[in-house]
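User: Run a structure prediction on this.
Assistant: Running it now.
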Amino acid sequence: MDNPIPNGLPQLFAMAEDAADGAKAKGALIDLKQNTEAAIRADLAAAKAAEQAYADAKTAKDTFSTNLRIADSNGRSFIKSVSAWFSETISEDWSAAWATTGFPNQSTAIPSTQDARLTLLDSLATYFTKNPTMEVNTPKLVLTAAVAGTLFTALTDARTAVNNGNTDAGTKRDARDAAVDDLKTRLRGLIAELGQLLDDNSPIWDAFGLNEPGADATPDVPEAPVLTPGGAPGTLHADWPHARNAARYHVWLFIVGVDTAYRNVDTVTDTADTLTGLPSGATAKIQITSVNDAGESGPSTEVTAVVG
């Protein structure tokens, strides 16, 4: 039986936890030297820390993006009010007098790009500074150089934060991927070392959460699958624990009101699968079976979710 290294991080981390537990319980007995409990746990901890750092950076990036949208929206509202005010005091349509205000492209409209809106806010701050009689400062409307400057700075800072956030998230993603690769390499090394130390049918493989390479028994039934709506419309995400002796898994789907029987919709080597193209609002049921060259297990318990 093969022992594939999962790609999904929850499954990979669970596999590493089992491997570390096995190394703790059986490492001394079998004279495990290279891929010890300490080595496995160090790589696992590094991968988990790197994944958390990346998750935090993504959350921060989302916050920065929200702040940018708010800053840009505030700038747009100010520009719209200024355009309406100038239409009353300068001219309704574009004229040479508008040129000194900074409105681009011989237009009185709000610029269509964020870059142009940023430049216009800076120009309006300069214009109002040079032409204080054109400022408005009433309880209902404030159009001043100070406000234009504040909005310009807020938009500049928000854009800088987004750029820095994108860079930071990219750096942390690369660090996470490198740490995950190290953990996968560690687990492959453990499997290779165990292959030198153990008989292919030794039950000690089970202590590490691994399949016996020489086993030809039908795999165990997958236990307690979980089914949740995916992040996009028409998707569901399924997760389940590793089943002993499983080389791959069949995912069986039943759409209530559509299907008359379960149908095999996917075969995966990982312990997770994302189903796409499902009818939104439908009730879906899944079951999982484990498979190896000796045969297929019975189905898991049935789980149900409503498609988003």
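The mean pLDDT is 95.
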